[in-house]
Amino acid sequence: MMTFLSTRDFHVPRPEQNRWGNIMSLVNFERKENGTTVSTDHNVRLLTYLSGILGSDVTLDPASLYGAGVYMARLHQALKNFDHPGLHRPNFKWNLRNTSVVGEYLHVLGSIEDQKMAHKVLDLFADKVLSRMEDLQQGPTHADFGSGNILVKEKTTNPGPEERYQICGVLDFGDAIWNPLVFDVAISLLFYMLTAPDHEDPTVYSGHFLRGYESVRPLTTAEWDVLYHCVVERACQLYVLNERAVSVEPDREAHIRQDCERLYETLKYLVESPKAEIDKQMLGR
Hints:
Elements: H1 2-6, E1 15-16, E2 25-33, E3 36-44, E4 46-47, E5 53-54, H2 62-78, H3 99-104, H4 112-128, E6 138-141, E7 150-154, E8 165-170, E9 177-180, H5 181-194, H6 202-214, H7 221-248, H8 253-256, H9 260-272, H10 275-283
Antiparallel strand pairs: 1-4, 2-3, 5-7, 6-9, 7-8
Helix pairs in contact: 2-6, 4-7, 5-6, 5-7, 6-10, 7-9
């Protein structure tokens, strides 16, 4: 997928051949673990370096966020006729349609009320989205198109009063998967809700990304019907799997929970808000 995009003028990491003529090789590494030498195999590859500023290292203004939406839509268009066996992995933990993984861990949630809320989200997603998969355009999706995985550069030619950064590349295709394209949009919308500046309304802020996307590839009626439910499902997925991670890795609790409070508040807000109201806010109307 990266090689394909790099030949179509997208600034993405490109795998390079190693000394054996492969783009990936299985290499054995040794390490010390509790005084014992442990040997494990790892898949190793070399990717080209990309210059730019991580989007997460700056505050993306609404115009820059609009540009990120445009970029995702262009990716989707470029990948329209692309496929690869590695994209088809229905059991991948972070696959948005893989609700069974989320449902398996609801018991780790702190209260019965939270468990009921998560059950409601999963049931609505199954009823409103999974039942309509044939109505949704599918294809390769990045599935983690947040500010930590995009590169930007300062815009020097004719910047508008609020436009400072322009997207110039995309990183980390590790979550790439074949799914409805609207899933990709929903994942990004939630991310930008969670990272909105304090002075911005999170839903309105993320809407700039959506409007940029729609300027290139307008959502279909079916995609609009399911978008809200996809955003809520992603919030629920992140919340539950983060709580699961804390339960099995308590020593990493501080790191895992650093953004959990805002995630939980966003999830509750989305669940308690009418779909029509969220759609309206994202459209800026």
